[in-house]
Amino acid sequence: AKERGKNGYELYTPEMDELYLSKFTMENDLRKAIQDGEFVLVYQPQVHIPSFEIVGTEALIRWRHPERGIVSPGEFIPIAEETGLIVPLSEWVIREACRQNRAWQLDGLPPIPVSVNLSVRQFLQPNLTERVAAILIETDLAPEYLELEITESMTMDVEFATAALMRLKELGLRISIDDFGTGYSSLNYLKSFPVDKLKIDRSFVRDIMDDPNDAAIVRTIITMAHHLGQTVIAEGVETEEQLAYLRTYGCDELQGYLYSPPLSPEKLRERLQSEANR
Ligand code: C2E
Ligand code: CA
Ligand code: CA
Ligand code: CA
Which residues line ligand 1 (CB under 6 A)? Predict the structure, then answer.
């Protein structure tokens, strides 16, 4: 039980009760949802800026809650992280993304890599490489079709992160840095990390036309990445103006509502099919 403050409710309020209750409920629901398979993946296309061809997809998780409908990852990923449920959940995400990707390839669709978000907990798992390797074998997906997205917060321990990333790279898969520019140690590690791609965070792209500082940051990230031999993708591109700007400064790819929101597997399949027929 919670200690009470002097006035009796300082540290313990009905609101807190509700919060704890809903968190507890969420944890139990999550546990059950993993068992019952209530999760689905949607796929957002990543397109090459000059040609507008789909060159990749990002797998994004959705929870089909029996009572609450579609729950977005922002609501349950933090709780999954806290409770450790993120480990089995993320394992499912990687397996499902690989399985789906291989199925599209076997169907004769143009092969494109799928990108999966790694959680902090997952990144810290000592046997991550072995688990990923096992999934690639199980799903028969060639490693170059899997990309793992990490965030800067995972790279605080540079030595650990470098070693972990090297092991993953040895499998032959790709690594990207998600939400680039929002973390701490961006420049310090970039030169030693085996990273293929930088994803410019949506917050910089959003104000590119109005805020000269954001525009300068975006141009700098593009130039720097290219000097380091990395591909750059801009997240959250919503307008033609943003696209024109990014094209002018040589950004390689975009992901955003301007081209497409995340799509169901069926819808993404249709897109890929119609591109192949073009
Ligand atoms: P993220 O990795 O930065 O993913 C991009 C988010 O931006 C997605 O939200 C996507 O739907 C949204 N988005 C894409 N284009 C636009 C745009 O043009 N405008 C705006 N306003 N938003 C756009 P979503 O799917 O709700 O995912 C939110 C976050 O949840 C992700 O951010 C990621 O950090 C996390 N997440 C999603 N799926 C997974 C997963 O399978 N595992 C883990 N560990 N995290 C995940
Ligand atoms: Ca991501
Ligand atoms: Ca992102
Ligand atoms: Ca984000």
Answer: 44, 60-61, 72-74, 77, 90, 93, 117, 119, 178-179, 202, 236-238, 255-257, 262
